[in-house]
């Protein structure tokens, strides 16, 4: 498992903001696993190269 | 009666009055009695109700009032399918006392088709948290070797069908939860096109990715079950108002001339499989070639893209549902579900929207690729079922899922057995098609199944 790029202190601040009652053991484990979230979040941003006109997947069709 | 019939075989025998629905239900209940203590496939068996339903079915059939191929067929439901008056728990302490006032739409449809319901089947907690040993019920075990994982989250359905405890059952699939258990347990399971089967009354995991569908021993049996489950439901906002073809009749058309894209890079580069899986997939491609299909390599965006997109959407939508309980009753979740969900608390609205934008792009890339092909062939899992204790809390983040692409696109995808390891564990492949071409997917799977002998082999524990 790669190491998270976020600092442990910053991660703990995010945990406080989320309002979840995490135990110290959970904080340690989730911090280590956070690297997976970082990697996925980076990938869906496509390096900032996505055109502004690419909309979210939700579409609405009028009935014919 | 010791032989386990398929739904198609049993239906024919019942129609010919050579098999009694009551005796069929009793045979399944006897197998449940003998094997469920090892397999944990059922978390609730409704024997009295099942026998009563079987007697009603038998009386109707004797009176010449057949409801079709499913009349008198024993099935069971994943325990996220709401059943009126019968606890529906999602395998969680949080819903241990939850007794719905209504049946799920698909439960009604299958009952109307004459099925006999034997009970409720194990799932990963809320269709994501498993295999867990800290829940009110133990995790299901693989009938091919109970030390091994069933796959999830439709774990009980995969195990129950493989062991002949039922002839078919329901599952749900948000990132592979029908196809994973189908592959690991050596059965057939289809994730139909998004919106084809109503989700009403099925406890949700992630609204925009959840699919309802069947698992059964054969592809033909899946077609029979899908026939009953599919159809527009105006009370499900994602339900598609489309004509429903005759899935079983469509199986009879040969597959010669079909263009099948073999997505080798999924299992060769993106999520490298073991040698047994590679060999079985190459053999499957050869089989399709011999059947007259035009099999060529296909290229899709890398699995990591599909996985990141699907996983972020799933995590965020699931967190939206569970946030109140995660804050007020975290101790009532199993550790796997609680901690996987908790990771989603660190995602932002921008992460979710970016994932949805990427989803639009990936769907366009999929549609573009499908101009050259009628179907895709790819791996369902990178290896055979691992030991159940070897599955870790964060295992679903460690390798990109082979099944997520078809949740992201909503396209129909079937998993079925395509070989066995030397240790007699099944290997699985996927066949996927364009949205609402479920019949074509089933047709190819059926053609493969009758051209091979894998479906003749049952787990040793059954005999």
Topology, please?
The complex is a heterodimer of chains A (64) and B (463).
Chain A: H1 8-18, H2 24-44
Chain B: H1 7-15, H2 21-39, E1 42-45, H3 47-62, E2 74-78, H4 105-112, E3 116-121, H5 155-162, E4 168-173, H6 179-185, E5 188-191, E6 211-216, H7 219-229, H8 247-250, E7 259-262, H9 264-270, H10 275-290, E8 294-297, H11 303-328, H12 335-343, H13 349-369, E9 375-379, H14 395-398, H15 405-408, E10 413-420, E11 426-433, H16 438-451
Parallel strand pairs in B: 2-3, 2-4, 7-8, 7-9
Antiparallel strand pairs in B: 1-3, 4-6, 5-6, 5-10, 9-11, 10-11
Descriptive tags:
heterodimer, A: 64 residues, mainly alpha, 2 helices, 50% helix, B: alpha/beta, 16 helices, 13% strand, globular
Description:
- The complex is a heterodimer of chains A (64) and B (463).
- Chain A is built from two helices and no strands.
- Chain A has helices spanning 8-18, 24-44.
- Chain A is elongated, with a radius of gyration of 17 Å.
- The N and C termini of chain A lie far apart (51 Å).
- With 463 residues, chain B is of the alpha/beta class.
- In chain B, 40% of the residues lie in helices and 13% in strands.
- In chain B, strands 1-3-2-4-6-5-10-11-9-7-8 form an eleven-stranded mixed sheet, sandwiched between helices.
- The N and C termini of chain B lie close together (12 Å).
- The mean pLDDT of chain B is 97.
- The interface between A and B is medium-sized, with 29 and 33 residues.
